[in-house]
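Appendix B, record 7
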Amino acid sequence: MEGRQIMGRILGLDYGSKTVGVAVTDGLNLTALSLDTIRRDRESHLRSTYRSIEQLTKEYDIALIVVGLPLNMDGSEGERARLARAFADELKRRTGIDTVMQDERLTTVEADELLSLEENRRKRAAGHERVDSVAAAIILTDYLNGLDR
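Structure tokens (predicted):
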């Protein structure tokens, strides 16, 4: 994908045990915009999550999906990374859209810090759920910053 023009928007996802934070690029793929948080009761209940993402890929004309890869601080992969890779693989199978993994170490911390700054100006309306979609925007921004344009 790198070094190649992407025709269509890019979807960024922060996959968690009960939520998936969602972000999307603008029409020119220059900036990432926090979009939504998809919730589910249990980690294994993914059917409606996949359907929601499939709908978003059509609504936003998505050409690429970027999924956060939760590496350990030493760069190794644990159970969360394995689950994120399986999630990305299933998305690719269901949508036919290429998926790439993006290191997401500390993105939730960064998102929480950004929202804490915003909270000084006004109260957070959605609490933790907002953190997930902001983390997805950070994951997507990190991916965009690494593209060879």
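Remarks on this record: DSSP finds four helices and five strands in the chain. The radius of gyration is 15 Å.
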